[in-house]
Design a protein that fits this description.
By secondary structure, the chain is mostly beta strands. It contains one helix and seven strands.
Amino acid sequence: MSEGPVETGEENEKAVFTADSAIYEYLDGGWKERGRGELKLNIPVSGGERSRLVMRAKGNYRLILNASLYDDMTLKDMDKKGVTFACINSIGESPSGLTTFALKFKDTGIREDFKAAVETHKAKKASDTPKTPEGSPKASDV
């Protein structure tokens, strides 16, 4: 069997932010680690589609996060190096679709760069904006 090029779905996108991170999901009243790997903020090269967050696990490149940005997306600081946000993860198991996630970076500077990149590339369509799930933790709860 010969190896050919692997399609990732990111061929028509450009990464405007990349950083190593750990991702946590808020489930059943607590944080559960979902993995560690490279987080990317991808923007479409051709336009028309939304920018999205993509994260793959280190080593096996398993998809951990695939979520479109939306106009009302709010990023809240967590601890010194983390940030929380709500989004719809296309690979998630949440029945409502919307889940609260936390990302932890190596340092505060990377977190601030991430927040600035997300603010710059949020979607301009507000018609299908998700709302924060009921019972989600506050940034101070973490």
